[in-house]
């Protein structure tokens, strides 16, 4: 995964990757297997501004609505830290 705002091979990139992995695990744990399989691709699209960011944000919103309160709160915190500006705006973060 490439990030336009995070230089490669830095502490920031390592932290961002760890946050994204945590986000993927948190969401996948509470979804059915079919939806869980799509989570990594959705998260990749919501953490960088791409032509698909808006569409991925809508899909993420649907996934978030299925999470328990603790998982939802954790996911929102991580998205606030690593999400693209478009995603934050669309999700009201």
Give a brief rundown of this model.
The protein is built from 5 helices and no strands. The chain has 93 residues and is mainly alpha-helical.
The percent of residues in helical segments reads 55-70%
Sketch the major β-sheet. none
What string, H for helix and E for strand, traces the elements in order?
HHHHH
Uncertain spans: none
Number of strands: 0
Task: Provide the gyration radius in Å.
Answer: 12 Å
| C-alpha end-to-end distance | 23 Å
The helix-and-strand class reads: mainly alpha
Strand-residue fraction?
under 5%
* Mean of residue pLDDT values: 84
What is the 3D shape?
globular
- Given the structure, what is the number of helices? 5
Number of individual domains: 1
Overall description:
With 93 residues, the chain is mainly α. It has one domain (11-91). It is 70% helix and 0% strand. It has helices spanning 11-28, 33-46, 53-64, 69-82, 85-91. Helix 2 (33-46) crosses helix 3 (53-64) and helix 3 (53-64) crosses helix 5. The longest helix is centred in the N-terminal third of the chain and has 18 residues, at 11-28. The protein is globular. The two termini are 23 Å apart. The relative contact order is 0.16. The model has no long low-confidence stretch (mean pLDDT 84).
